[in-house]
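Aggregate trends can hide what the representation actually does to any particular protein. In the encoding step, the backbone of a single protein was reduced to a row of integers, each denoting a local shape. The record that follows shows the chain in one-letter code together with its fold in token form.

***
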Amino acid sequence: IEWVQPSFAPDHVDDAAVGSGEGSGEGVGSGAGEGVGAGNASGSRLRVELLFDEATFHTLCSAKGKGAAEAIRTVAEPLPGGYSTDRGEWDKRVHGGSAESLCGEVVCALPDVHGYKRCIRSTDLSNPETQAFVMRLTNAMMWLIDGCTPIDVGTDPTRWQLLTVWERDELVAAATVYIFVVPCKRLRVCQVFVVPRHQRQGVGAQLLDAIYAEAKKEGGAEVNVEDPCAAFSKLRDVVDARRAGTLRAHIDKSGGAMPSAAQLAQAQTELLLSKEQLQRLVELLRMRALEASGASAEAVTTFRVECKRRLLKVHNEDLQPLPTPERKRKLADMYEQLAGGYRECAQKLGKPAQADHYQLE
């Protein structure tokens, strides 16, 4: 499957080199046969193709047309997991066996999908072969996830955790997590990847749930995410809201009132949330309850002002230098974007019991 226009190129490749110039026809692909190509207005058409195997994530890079050799050097040489240019060599590597055996023990069995069993495995990166698999996986992530960069394993690979979802010896999804131990044990989610043909099946949420479960088992105090994209932030909000049964029930019952400091502290500890993520969760649950309960205009205004104050504090460096009218306009735009995301999440959660819908203006 190929895109007529690529939405981005990895950081190591100039956007203009993958389809934005004259004669361009192909771009970054998705699925198990990914292609990236660029056209050339003069001379033969240049086509570069990357193929990723879903069982091992060995990479095959091929190119045809004018400048093919230089294109391979530009596109493939910076990839951290290496690559093959010979199809026969790639086939041998691919048929050497699935990488599932490198991914540790099963920590969770997932519901069958179309009759096929799935499981989640977990391991650290102390095995060099597992590290190599993560780098090969990163080859695909760098093409399919905007802004993705390789992890730096460093001198203590046991501080890294790899969680993977498998079905019939093929990878469905993966996440890399780094464990901080000072001043307390905290887990940072660094990469999350769902194979394109398995997306929108709830796999990302299952994987995030497994990360929280592993953190609890290891005595972790917090799970946070490194530079999440907007889509992952929404996924995380929904997962956290579903986990926050007690807090959600209190906010629903109160019609969107702010929980007490003691309730917030308890939720933060039980849910392993950072202060910032707890604020997002509370805002989401309060907006859901306020819009469903027919809240008063005063309550609606108070909530909106509280959200804008938080946004102003977070983005103060960018907003403060602006003239007052422009600052107010940008802040209003930020709030509308935030509220729109919360509403999307709220729809997935469903309405509070016996509540009528009322949308905040």
The CA atoms of residues 9 and 15 lie 5 Å apart. The two ends are 41 Å apart (CA to CA).
